[in-house]
């Protein structure tokens, strides 16, 4: 959990990994995130063959040692929370929650890039299950799985269209995804920027407990 990207790419998401035995990334089109077996002693430049000039990549947790050609563009301090009990989750939502599929990809992209641009790509839905709520045929809220490690699954892409906030759609969707993960024998976890107080209160209400504050480092590689 302290190095979730590396462990995801070595276990459940091994088929999405490209790179070397010590540094790898999610393949383009899924996530712009990379992981290292030993971040503080890793050479990020070994990943150059699998990167594009100017491409932005995230590292989660410990930052790799400085390498020529890499620039830190920003640091996001995120709360990492886990939910090990279903006690506070919502078992019977008042809205119909549907499983999203390939036909919904374009709407998913449009919705999440309206609310949280830059983190969701065409093939991101391949990483796990995604669910949504529709109103008048329109996708107005969604949530699903991103990083998946043996025994753990990250809830991500929790978004609601600005015209439909305040209806507890996020609570229902997060509960639905968390219960699905728990039913499969894994532990749900999530990350959010720790200045997002509103999100934190929602997750605490649902029984998620903070494990630690973990940084997300955005890096840019120049050729």
In short:
The chain is an alpha+beta fold and 223 residues long.
The residue fraction in helices comes out at: 10-25%
Number of DSSP helical runs: 4
Low-pLDDT segments: none
Query: Would you tell me the structural class of the helices and strands?
Result: alpha+beta
User: How many strands?
Assistant: 11
Topology pattern, helix = H, strand = E: HEEEEEEHEEEHEHE
End-to-end separation in angstroms reads 32 Å
Largest sheet: 8 strands, mixed
> How much beta, percentage-wise?
25-35%
Q: Which helices and strands, and how do they pair?
A:
Elements: H1 4-10, E1 17-19, E2 23-26, E3 34-36, E4 56-60, E5 70-82, E6 98-99, H2 105-115, E7 130-135, E8 138-149, E9 152-160, H3 169-183, E10 187-193, H4 197-205, E11 209-221
Parallel strand pairs: 9-10
Antiparallel strand pairs: 1-2, 2-3, 4-11, 5-10, 5-11, 6-7, 7-8, 8-9
Characterise the protein shown here:
By secondary structure, this protein is α+β, with helices and mostly antiparallel strands. Helices cover 19% and strands 35% of the residues. The chain contains 4 helices and 11 strands, in the order αββββββαβββαβαβ. The protein has helices at residues 4-10, 105-115, 169-183, 197-205; strands spanning 17-19, 23-26, 34-36, 56-60, 70-82, 98-99, 130-135, 138-149, 152-160, 187-193, 209-221. The protein has an 8-stranded mixed sheet with strand order 4-11-5-10-9-8-7-6, with helices on both faces. It has a 3-stranded antiparallel sheet with strand order 1-2-3, with helices on one face. A hairpin with a 3-residue loop joins strand 1 and strand 2 (23-26). The radius of gyration is 17 Å and the shape is globular.
């Amino acid at each position: 959990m302290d190095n979730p990207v590396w462990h995801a790419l070595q276990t459940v998401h091994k088929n999405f990994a490209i790179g070397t035995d010590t540094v790898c990334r999610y393949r383009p089109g899924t996530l712009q995130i990379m992981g290292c077996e030993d971040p503080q002693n890793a050479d990020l430049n070994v990943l150059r063959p699998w990167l594009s000039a100017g491409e932005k990549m995230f590292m989660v947790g410990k930052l790799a040692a400085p390498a020529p050609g890499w620039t830190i563009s920003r640091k996001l301090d995120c709360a990492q929370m886990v939910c090990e009990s279903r006690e506070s989750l919502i078992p019977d939502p008042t809205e119909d929650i549907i499983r999203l599929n390939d036909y919904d990809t374009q709407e998913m992209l449009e919705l999440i890039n309206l609310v949280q641009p830059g983190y969701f790509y065409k093939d991101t839905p391949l990483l796990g299950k995604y669910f949504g709520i529709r109103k008048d045929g329109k996708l107005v809220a969604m949530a699903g799985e991103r990083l998946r490690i043996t025994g753990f699954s990250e809830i991500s892409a929790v978004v609601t269209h600005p015209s439909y906030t305040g209806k507890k759609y996020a609570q229902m969707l997060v509960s639905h995804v968390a219960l699905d993960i728990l039913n499969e024998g894994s532990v749900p976890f999530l990350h959010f920027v720790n200045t997002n107080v509103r999100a934190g209160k929602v997750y605490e209400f649902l029984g998620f407990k903070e494990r630690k504050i973990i940084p997300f480092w955005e890096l840019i590689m120049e050729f």
